[in-house]
Design a protein that fits this description.
Layout lengths: L1 H8 L28 H20 L3 H15 L4 E8 L2 E9 L8 E3 L4 H8 L3 E3 L10 H7 L3 E9 L2 E10 L7 H40 L3 E5 L5 E4 L2 H6 L3 H4 L10 H17 L3 E8 L5 E12 L5 E10 L1 H23 L3 E6 L4 E4 L1 H7 L3 H4 L4 H4 L2 H15 L5 E9 L5 E12 L5 E10 L1 H7 L3 H11 L5 E5 L5 E4 L4 H4 L3 H4 L13 H10 L2 E7 L5 E10 L8 E7 L1 H15 L7 E2 H13 L7 E10 L1 H7 L2 H18 L5 E4 L4 E9 L2 H15 L3 E3 L2 E3 L2 E8 L6 H17 L5 E4 L11 E4 L5
Parallel strand pairs: 22-24, 28-29, 29-30
Antiparallel strand pairs: 1-2, 1-6, 2-3, 4-5, 5-6, 7-8, 7-11, 9-10, 10-11, 12-13, 12-16, 14-15, 15-16, 17-18, 17-21, 19-20, 20-21, 23-25, 23-28, 24-25, 26-27
Helix pairs in contact: 1-6, 2-3, 2-6, 3-6, 15-16, 22-23, 23-24
Amino acid sequence: MRFAAACRSNKRLLLDARPVRAGVGAPLNGYPEAVPDNGQVLALRAILEIQQAALGEALTPDAIMARIAQSAVAITSAKGAVMELIEGDQMRYAHGAGSLEGTEGLRLSIATSLSGLAVTQNQALRSNDAFADPRVDHDAAMRIGVRSMVIVPLTVDGTTLAVLKTVSDDVQAFTDHDVEIVTTLASFAARVLQQTQSLHDRRLEQETYRLISQTSTDAILQVGLDGRILWASPAAREILGHPPRALVGMAAVDLIHPQRREEYAQRIAQATSEGADTRLEYPAVRPDGSTVWVESAGRFARDEQGALQYRVVRLRDISAAREAVEALAQSENQFRSAMQNAPIGMCLIGTDGSFLQVNEALCQVLGRPEQVLMRSNWQELTHPDDVGVDLDFAAQALSGELDQYRLVKRYLRPDGAVVWGDLSVSAVRDSNGAVVHFVSQILDISELKQEEQQSAATINRYHRLAGVGNDVMAELTSEGVFVLVSPNTKALFGVDAPAIVGDSLFSFVPSDQRSRVRAALQASTHFELPVRSAHGRISRAEAVTQVLPHDPDGGLVIRIRDITEHFETREQLRTQARTDPLTGLLAWQELERRLEALLGHEPRTGTRTAFAMMEVGGVGQAREQHSEAVADELLRIVADRIRGALRESDLVARGEGDQLAVMLVGVERMTDAVEVLQRVIQEVGTPHAVDGSVLRPRLSIGVTEALPDEWPEWVISRAEQALDNSKNRGGNRVSLAGGLPESSASAQVIAFPGRKG
């Protein structure tokens, strides 16, 4: 935010109390010579009151801006006022008063608004009719009902901190006299705002340092230029074993292990002579003789002339980290040894497909020495017909869909021979989930593949050797008829393996999916396979096919894996992210998303949408008088009752604490929405027996109409205002924002003017 930075850059803290006179359009870089009338006296009085409050009450910059806006309304003929802040290429409404209260968050373009023009020209500007003035953002003016306005930048030393805008819903509402009053107020307010921000920043800096030193798990030391400790934070006891008071007066280098003390003392002395920062790692000795490894970061504090005052040192216990690094190095050495001595081919593959590490067994399988493999990638060594399947699996792993995969593929040796390999790949990811590299294991099954063509027994032995687990392995004809199948078919197909042989795979596929599966089967690829068991249960499965080599009839080997449980778990997690775990209602973020979509993107049908905020009374009392569990159960009961009273098309979500929100879509009139909400109040008001106690919750509701192309924040704000009105009148009623209902409703309905725009 440009305002805060501008305030921090100016160090003058005394209010310049000279009055200001400026005409319409006059730049705000001068001060008037005298106070000519009562209006400017009121402006000066207002700003003096603000200044006194700022000093006596330690007001924040936000509170100061709110008071400036309120004062502008009080001492002028304005109906409303707002403080605007410069944020990038936009002006943002920050603090409103009068008719502009509640417009906070509205944004205007600097390039197309009168506020932006006042900033770029650095002068007060007036518009007598905003609807006809080409300098004004007409859409924004119409949304908030502004016809005339006076805009004055709050400028200090050439820097604009904010903009004060006073408005009226009347044409030509402001005189030259009004402009002078607002200009006077803005000129002095700029100084007070600057001072307040400077004091606020200093207090925040001091409090931040205090909290950091008191709560940080790192030890903070203040070390004099003579190398002795002047002050230590509480964390020093945990890291160094010394009470903080015992460290005062001790030479800081005496904390270092004697074997390393001289080395680091020289480095610290050199840093002191140069006034340079330090970052060291060394073993520190505790009073009991034990050693702790610490990371030391030191920086010198200087006075206004730049002379060194003392050194601030942060000490962090890194013993666990060093142990972890050593353990990791040991683990890596063990892995490397195991990999090199493994009886099957193993390698590390980079995300670009290159070989990072290979073992001797893999060199023998692929018929290439290590030096050649390290200059190659796996695609170059793979049979062209098998590259695509492997690439698809690798892409899924890189995208996060898979952590590991397995397939049978062919490799090419330098002499032209084909090697069949049973490939198992696991992705190794970093802390952010990105793939670092792949660990691959390759078992040479060439002999088994040759025997597979001749004997079903050989195929079954291969299944056991491959360790397929719950996966179903089978050999199919080109038409999808089972020739051979692994014995574990009962769980997925509902029948034993012998009963499947001679049957068609498509007899277990739902009729509407057979054409898709047939095409995927002919393509010899990886695809999703729905399976209908003999008992009618439909499971989700994934299938990988491979054409049988040297088979003139085009036979296939297929691996089928049941992924139903995995799919259902994923869907359950997605559902949980969209719902509140306590009540089962929509999550607040999901309701906001649907409201935004309805306002900005859904087609208009002639009907209306009502948005209501609710607060459940009695839940807090149940929490205090009984327990959290009783309060939660009551809230769940209320949520169920609300769902039962609403229409099928209505949406209900849980907000913060005991607040709920309802979106009623497709109501003819707002009175229809009110009637639905009154039924909700009656339903919820029924006594509830919870944990042996009879509880009578109350429901306060505020409702408003959600208008097309409106910002969701405005809709929610109006509903919250209406909710506050309902609570202020005792609750158990509906308050309607935006005027009276279209037709008669219950006496419980309260209508009050809402603000749009």
